[in-house]
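Supplementary Methods. Inverse-folding protocol.

Structures were first reduced to a discrete structure-token string of length 350. This string, shown here, constituted the complete conditioning input.
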């Protein structure tokens, strides 16, 4: 069903249909995209948002003109089904850089079953903003599969890479009902073999590249994930960690479609009483690899830790005694792969 507003002019009853994509955030139990025969979700919303068409990103911080009724279909973007002109209807979609999630979303296959998995809301927000139904999300550090679970839930597909075979098997079983939407590969994300393995998974879906890249590496050695020397959490130094992270990221970028987005979820660390800005160091590596930085979002850290973690009185004591602050935030950084083909076309038309 198309997103068409039916507006009775002259104070009559206004009724519109809009944005079924938002249903997962409003009613998380209901999902699946309608494009492949799944149930079509219908929501009713005010028609006023439809009047604010053709406001480009550079005008978003300017005062909004009084609403007028426009019959133009809202402008769409190549990488998402969200339509900027319908912004009023997307209350649950974050557009600010401060991400506060009071609780971890549980349900629909999500649980805090793995120390170090991110809250599902990160995947929900970024998948809705930067992918369309049917698109492929590549996660190079799959862990317990939060991205894959959310991709399935939102009607996307996921190629997940994870070093630990036990975790890959765990995710495979968890998503057995959606085996055609996920490709899970036990592999070292820094291995040169990765590119061919992912390309062959993509080819099975008639795709040559992924439409979104998710990078949620270990925050160096904060949590030891395994004894495998290839595990980034076992890198001997911050410099070694950054080199291995950049190697994996380079693979991910090569596998990402030009013009599409990459998401880095990362926190900082302390080393001998000194704050190491791991997030910014990784960010610089991605910029050096040619990604364009779009946003640095700061997210509260509640809901990541099993048990009380660093909220205990002992840690408060240590912070006071040591002259430092306890980590209460991590970063969700958004990047875009430059589209040189597009730039070439634009130059050619000048
Ligand atoms: C922070 S966790 C990711 C958690 C995941 N986002 C989730 O929500 O479940 C990082 C993961 O990277 C994996 N890992 C570490 N080094 C790796 C490597 N070289 N290649 C692939 N995976 C690796 C670890 O085993 C761990 O599961």
């Amino acid at each position: 069903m198309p997103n068409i507003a039916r507006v009775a002019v002259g104070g009559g009853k206004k009724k519109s249909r809009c944005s079924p994509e938002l249903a997962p955030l409003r009613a998380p139990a209901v999902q699946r995209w309608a494009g492949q025969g799944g149930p079509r979700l219908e929501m009713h919303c005010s028609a006023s948002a439809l009047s604010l068409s053709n406001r480009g990103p550079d005008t978003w911080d300017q005062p909004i003109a009084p609403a007028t009724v426009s019959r133009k279909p809202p402008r769409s973007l190549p990488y998402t089904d969200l339509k900027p002109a319908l912004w009023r209807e997307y209350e649950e979609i974050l557009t600010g850089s401060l991400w506060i999630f009071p609780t971890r979303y549980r349900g629909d296959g999500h649980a805090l079953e793995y120390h170090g998995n991110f809250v599902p809301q990160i995947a929900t927000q970024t998948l809705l903003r930067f992918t369309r139904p049917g698109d492929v999300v590549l996660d190079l550090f799959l862990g317990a599969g939060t991205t894959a679970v959310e991709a399935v839930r939102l009607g996307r597909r996921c190629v997940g890479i994870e070093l630990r075979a036990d975790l890959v098997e765990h995710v495979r079983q968890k998503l057995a009902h959606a085996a055609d939407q996920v490709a899970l590969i036990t592999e070292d994300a820094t291995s040169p073999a990765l590119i061919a393995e992912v390309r062959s998974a993509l080819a099975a879906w008639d795709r040559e590249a992924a439409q979104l890249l998710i990078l949620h590496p270990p925050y160096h050695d904060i949590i030891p994930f395994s004894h495998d020397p290839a595990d980034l959490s076992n890198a001997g130094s911050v410099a070694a960690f950054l080199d291995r992270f950049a190697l994996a990221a380079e693979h991910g970028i090569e596998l990402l479609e030009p013009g599409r987005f990459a998401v880095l979820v990362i926190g900082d660390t302390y080393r001998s009483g000194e704050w190491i800005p791991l997030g910014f160091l990784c960010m610089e590596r991605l910029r050096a690899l040619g990604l364009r930085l779009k946003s640095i979002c700061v997210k509260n850290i509640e809901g990541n830790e099993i048990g009380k973690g660093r909220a205990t009185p002992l840690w408060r004591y240590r912070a006071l005694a040591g002259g430092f602050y306890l980590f209460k935030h991590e970063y969700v950084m958004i990047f875009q792969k430059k589209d040189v083909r597009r730039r070439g076309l634009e130059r050619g038309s000048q």
